[in-house]
Each structure stands twice: as C-alpha cells, then as structure tokens.
Design goal:
Elements (H helix, E strand, L loop, with lengths): L11 H5 L6 E4 L2 E4 H23 L6 E2 L5 E2 L9 H5 L61 H18 L2 H9 L9 H11 L3 H14 L6 H13 L1 H7 L7
Antiparallel strand pairs: 1-2, 3-4
Helix pairs in contact: 4-5, 4-6, 6-7, 6-8
Length: about 240
Amino acid sequence: ELENLSDAPFSGDEENGGSGERKSEINGNWIPATSITEAKLNAKAKRRLRKNSSRDSGRGDSVSENGETLKIGAAVPTSPKGKLLDRRSRSGKGRGLPKKGGAGGKGVWGTPGQVYDVEEVDIKDPNYDDDQENCVYETVVLPLDERAFEKTLTPIIQEYFEHGDTNEVSEMLKDLNLGEMKYSVPVLAVSLALEGKASHREMTSKLISDLCGTVVSKTDVEKSFDRLLKELPELVLDSPKAPQV
C-alpha cells in the first residue's frame, strides 16, 4: 500500500533497472512506477510540512492549514472571549498607565499627600437648609445604670486608696453622667472601705467630705447613708464589724 512505501524517491528496482518504465501490482492492479514515485514525494512533503508547522508553532512565523506561512504582526482571528478579557485601550490611545495615578481603586482615599479643600455649602442646592449653619454639636454621654455604675466606679475608688488624691477622683466623676446614681457614690465608697484597712476608712471619710458640694449634694449624702443603714444586714455578712465601724 502507499503508506508502507519508503521515503526514498526511487525503489531498488528503479535504481538498478535502467530507463524503462516498470509496473507494480497493488491490490490486483498494475500501477506505473512514475505514479508510485509521485505518491512517495507527496507523502514526504506533507510530513515535512507538518513537522515544520509543529516546530514553528512557538515562534513568530507559523504555517496555516493550506501551507501558507503567517508572518509576525499578521491578523490572527481571535475569539470573542479573548476580546472581552483584553485590558488594553479600545481606542488604542492608552499609555499603559494606571487610572488616576493608581488612586482610583475601590475604597481608596486618594494619592498619598493629597490635600482636600474645605467643601463650601451651595445655597442653590435644593437640599440646602438654613438651620445647618446654626447647628451646635455636643458630645452626649449616656447616664450610667446600676450595673455600669459599679463596674466603672469600683476601679476609680480602689485607685484612690493607692494615690489618695481627691481632686483626681472629682475630675474623673465629673466626666461621667451619674444621673440619679449620684447618691450611690458614698454607698460604694463606704462598702469598699469596710472590706479594707482602717486607713482606707479614713480616706473614704475625706473623699466624701471633698465631693460634697461639687459632685454630690448634701441630700445625696443623706440618701446614701439611709441606704447603708438599710443594707447593714447584708454588709455584716462580709464585714462583721460593720455596725461599729
């Protein structure tokens, strides 16, 4: 068959056999030797063409199916998906630089060192409100509830037992919104002093005296000791000498 023929342009018989035309029998048909030679040459040329096309596939030049060589820069048809993923400028005028100098991404404030001007209010803006110019914003501190009160003031009083500065305690309490819990300041201070040393009780007496009139009123102090007398049975459980103290 034609595929089993050798790559040589002439067979052994043709090399030794003179100029006379020879015939070979293939599948019962006699074919002239010239036709066999042409078939061999065509098969060999096709093999060379396929080998060159596979070798040059990674280079700039390539061979098409018709045997035509495609040069670098030739228009090669691309798929629509490749065009969608192409990040190059459609107009061909892009310089390849990032947009807005690299400061145009999502969640970006701007380039480093950029200073923004003060935004002026537009009177012609339909959302403009005259009352906005006269607004005064103040920091609102929510009043402490009973649980937050004890959690916040306990470390303040315990630190006071270490440094003994009543002015510092007064400034810290003024920053808090005690609300209706002002009378609980002496209650908490005395309760902590009962569990401490004698020096702590003396410091607590001085603290209540200095806070009266600035942070708490006389009425608050009276209300605090009334509550201490009512809670005395519970205080005895932790401090047995609480009534005498």
